[in-house]
Amino acid sequence: MENAKILERLKGKFPEAVVADQDCRGDLQVTVSVDALIEVMQFLHDDEQLAFDLLVDVLSIDNSERRRSPRFEVVYVLVSTSSYDRLLVKVPLDDGEEIPTVTGIWHSANWAEREVYDLMGIRFAGHPDLRRILTWDGFDGHPLRKEFPLLGKDFDKKWDPDTIEIR
């Protein structure tokens, strides 16, 4: 389906929810309000003409160095396995604002949302297992945020292989 037809179908169903759209290297990119996210995503998944049945990735962007507001954007990369269409859905978020999980629509969102939480600190409301996935439980901070030190942090405990518990 052509990008214009995808956009027309989406805006026809959610005229206020789609706040912006643009072409991104041939793929349609839409910006959706956080309040309408679940309803829009469920429609994209369930609609027989659109059928975006595959969530490829969930990623996030920290706009703080660009001094853009809101600070974060969460981006969902969707694919329709029947028409091979790709769609990028962006959701702008302020620092500290939660976004609803889409794990009830696509199970593949589980680990991707955990990664975004771990590395950027964006919380997904309703996530079944929102905990760190790449850093350890006691890790302080979120390493992909712009304010995180480039050289990392100096940790209290130095590496000592003799203290590792063998399980």
Please provide a written account of the structure.
20% of the residues lie in helices and 25% in strands. With 167 residues, the chain is α/β, with parallel strands linked by helices. The protein has a single domain (3-163), classed as 2-Layer Sandwich (Beta Polymerase, domain 2), CATH 3.30.460.80. The strands form two sheets. The protein has a five-stranded mixed beta sheet. A two-stranded parallel ribbon has the order 6-7.
Summarize this, please?
This protein has 167 residues and is of the alpha/beta class. Helix content is 20%, strand content 25%.
Keyword list:
single chain, 167 residues, alpha/beta, Beta Polymerase, domain 2, 5-stranded mixed sheet, 20% helix, 25% strand, elongated
Characterize the biggest β-sheet. 5 strands, mixed
Radius of gyration (Å): 18 Å
Across the major sheet, the strand order is 1-2-5-4-3
Unreliable spans are: none
CATH superfamily: NADH:ubiquinone oxidoreductase Nqo5 subunit
Q: What structural category do the secondary elements indicate?
A: alpha/beta
Helix content: 10-25%
CATH level-3 fold name: Beta Polymerase, domain 2
Q: What value does the average pLDDT take?
A: 91
The coarse overall form would be: elongated
**What is the number of domains?**
1
Total number of beta strands: 7
What fraction strand?
A: 25-35%
Question: Mind sketching the topology for me?
Answer:
Elements: H1 3-13, E1 18-24, E2 27-32, H2 37-46, E3 54-62, E4 72-79, E5 86-93, E6 99-100, H3 109-120, E7 124-125
Parallel strand pairs: 2-5, 6-7
Antiparallel strand pairs: 1-2, 3-4, 4-5
